[in-house]
């Protein structure tokens, strides 16, 4: 987690979106994207770097869209319709699933997108 | 060579997308190779109703603009091998495709599929013009409301002036009890105004709401009355002669007892 934030913060090419992205809205950016709000179903975020959502992701997020395999997607509630990192695509399995209640990060591990629970407890950065 | 069918209505919320999903699935149930095309760019819904939203990678705009091949954008249904969906784009608008491009697209799809079912957006602007551009037959959906019938009449006129003669009519969400009491327009009233051939009548049915939210069309539910109506409609589209279903008769024995109890 710390590593990820370090690289994300060290890059200057980061934009901050201070609103909820609604259906049909899309953000495309060559660097990192931080969203203070939600990403609703039908909305999309395409970023060259990491994507951090301080809210719920229920739409489509594509991190590392221009070939960065180390890109990650982090959200307070990571429940996307479809998730893309670099050239990997994954989707939620069919059927009903409860929404996650804890922050999670998605990254590529062993040629697949893996979602991990993250805990900031005892790991304060500032 | 396949047949291109457009489902339209003019007014929004009368059940175009529901009808498209159910007719498409009904035809697939009969073993036809079909593709549904969502032309409601910017307000796409058909993918959600079909439960295929999470499989979208490319869409109709990507196809017409040459960002991908047609085959890459077609989503195979999770239940039927012979049913496909071409989704609309959500982050673009209706001007992203032209009538000419839609015509070419329909011609391409015709060589591969038995039926191409096009879901038309509400309104009579560019989206409507795109949806009907490649169509050979039209199905107009209306509900038994004055406003919906008024809009359907406008649509029938527009279809005729663009060469789609003899559109067929679906009357959706009819409630026989209300018609009986004179509180709702009857089938006959609507046909008299619109003067087009009736393709089917679909009763108002709560199970449609449930199946729509679940992403499973009502035709797949054997117990659903609306599902039965849509199965009949699909069969009529293939040329079979199926009589109109009796809207009065409630199928379940529980319903019969319920009615018997309320009557006495």
Report on the architecture of this protein.
The complex is a heterodimer of chains A (about 130) and B (about 260). With about 130 residues, chain A is mainly β. Chain A has one domain (about 1-115): Pectate Lyase C-like. In chain A, about 5% of the residues lie in helices and about 40% in strands. In chain A, the strands form two sheets. Chain A has a six-stranded mixed sheet, with no helix packed on it. A five-stranded mixed sheet of chain A has the order 2-4-6-8-9, with no helix packed on it. In chain A, β10 (about 105-110) and β11 (about 110-115) form a beta hairpin. The mean pLDDT of chain A is about 90. Chain B has about 260 residues and is an alpha/beta fold. Chain B has one domain: 3-Layer(aba) Sandwich (Rossmann fold), CATH 3.40.50.300. Chain B is about 40% helix and about 15% strand. Chain B contains twelve helices and eight strands. Chain B has helices at about 15-30, 45-50, 60-65, 70-75, 100-110, 125-135, 145-160, 175-180, 185-195, 205-215, 225-235, 255-264; strands at about 5-10, 35-40, 75, 85, 115-120, 135-140, 170-175, 195-205. Chain B has an eight-stranded mixed sheet with strand order 3-4-2-5-1-6-7-8, with helices on both faces. Chain B is globular, with a radius of gyration of 18 Å. The model of chain B has no long low-confidence stretch (mean pLDDT about 95).
Short structural summary:
Chain A has 126 residues and is mostly beta strands.
Helix fraction bin of chain A: under 10%
Oligomerization state: heterodimer
Assign the CATH class of chain A: Mainly Beta
Helix content of chain B: 40-55%
- Amino-to-carboxy terminus distance of chain B: 57 Å
Number of strands of chain A: 11
Runs of chain B with pLDDT <50, length 5+? none
What order do the strands of the largest sheet of chain B run in, or round the barrel if closed? 3-4-2-5-1-6-7-8
Instruction: Give the overall silhouette of chain A.
Output: globular
- Report the sheet with the most strands of chain A, covering strand number, pairing sense and barrel closure: 6 strands, mixed
Number of helices of chain A: 1
List segments of chain A where confidence is low: pLDDT < 50 over at least 5 consecutive residues.
none
Helices of chain B, by number, come to 12
CATH topology term of chain B: Rossmann fold
The chain-level mean pLDDT of chain B equals 94
Strand content of the residues of chain B, in percent? Answer: 15-25%
CATH architecture annotation name of chain A: 3 Solenoid
Structural class of chain A: mainly beta
The CATH architecture category of chain B equals 3-Layer(aba) Sandwich
